[in-house]
Amino acid sequence: MNGPHLHHDGEDPFGPGSYFHQTRRPIVCLAFLAPLLAAYEVGVIWLASRDEPIHGGAGGWLRQSLAETGAGAAFALPAVVAAILLGWNFYGHHRWEVRWDTLGGMLGESLLAASLLVGAAFGTHALLGDGGAGDAPTVTVDLADDAGGAPRSTAANLVGAVGAGVYEELLFRLALLPLAYGLFRLLRCGPRGAAALAVVSSSLLFALCHHLGPQGEVPTLGPFLFRAGAGGVLAALFWWRGFGVAVGAHAAYDLIAGVLLAG
What we know:
With 263 residues, this protein is an all-alpha fold. It has one domain (4-143, 151-260). The chain is 65% helix and 0% strand. The chain contains 9 helices and no strands. α7 (191-208) packs across α8. The longest helix has 33 residues, at 154-186.
């Protein structure tokens, strides 16, 4: 795929050493995401010791699907993410340098994007409602069955927000967005048209998935429009700022809207 986020080092208009180029390198994204991956795995193990179910949208769904193939397969998820990013870095001929100041900048970008999404969520709720009294809709797709409907603990919500940030971006942005782009290119769309259609279609599917499955919400206009818009923002972050920033923004938003402001 020839999308902007897959430039080789020599093709970046800002230069191979620029901050904006470094954030898109897969190895830098992996270094940025490593603490989130580790925190999610530790959290899952801790929740299992307390007999609490695993939530967090795609993270819980992927883990449950893998668990059906073998006792230890569920814990292969971090290895899958690492293998994808390491392979991408190697075969894309990207540099292997990781700088601390770059990781700090990515954290700042993620928090800024999440804060803007929080403002947009409350603005959408104020204009269109449908999200619950004063609540900002989360951008987590809950595909896992919650048998019994027991309230989730704060710890479960924290772990779920981290897992959603990583694994929903893995599904909807890292996997689906390039596939949709390639499909529209095969249908003879130009590069810009294919990119626009890939963003729109993947964002609509992202919003729609919140209303599917046993935990799907009743479709309402406000949350659907917000999530479709949030999907577009996350796709733009992935396209131009890299996978790491998109994951960071998604996880930070769900931590703020789904945990800190939900109490």
